[in-house]
Amino acid sequence: MRLLCSNDDGILAHGLACLERAAGELGEVYVVAPDREQSAMSHSLTLHHPLRPVQLGERRWQVDGTPTDCVMLAIEALLPQRPDFVLSGVNHGPNMGEDVLYSGTVAAAMEGLALGVPAIAVSFAGRDFLSHPDALEPHVEPLARLLRHLTALPAFPAHTLLNVNIPAIPAAEIQGVRLTRLGRRVFSDSVARMKDPWGRPIYWIGGGSVTWSAGEGTDVDAVRSGFISVTPLHLDATHQARLDDADEWWRQP
Length: 253
Ligand code: MN
What we know:
Structural class: alpha/beta
Bound molecules: manganese (II) ion
Radius of gyration: 19 Å
Strand content: 25-35%
CATH architecture: 3-Layer(aba) Sandwich
Shape: globular
Number of helices: 8
CATH class: Alpha Beta
Helix content: 25-40%
Number of domains: 1
CATH topology: Stationary-phase Survival Protein Sure Homolog, Chain: A
Strand order of the largest sheet: 3-4-2-1-5-6-7-13-8
Distance between the termini: 52 Å
Number of strands: 13
């Protein structure tokens, strides 16, 4: 099995090293990852300047682009053959609910899917990687087992990526794995007002607080309860339920 690993935290990220080690137990690993952090880049593509991949090893490249660029370049240009799976992560932080719309980690997996390669995105729901850089370490073995299981599913669903979130608790305390839907979150104070060195107003997006609406069956609820969450996602944003109840709201113009 050939596995393409990418991420949005950059090629030096500890989470990517952990993913590579887990994936290494499953098959031949290729890494094509951004040369710097590209979190919250969503599915952006670099169109206005060329990309210059730097080959760092036989199966390893860094790219001066986004996660989406990396996966597209890998599959269309750099790898000798198409990978069997695209694996993205392990992200330094959760990607649940609306996060998946901003996440570069999920976008890298989406790009694999868009190019016809089944994909799995993996995130670690710990926020404090700087003071606990080893927190992910004990999760590598269990992650390898989970990836082995997911990539060997008798019918890996078509047109689907699996979005995995690992709770930030000791690996021995993980309760199991739950199949989930996306939860919802509400950000408060997510724009910080500040002053630049010249006293002019500037605004910094980020920080603030997050309130999760974690109904039963959601990714947030699973992770809160100590379970690894696996959410199937697809790229089709069509609101099927609104088509189904169109009689109730739609009037032909
Ligand atoms: Mn990230």
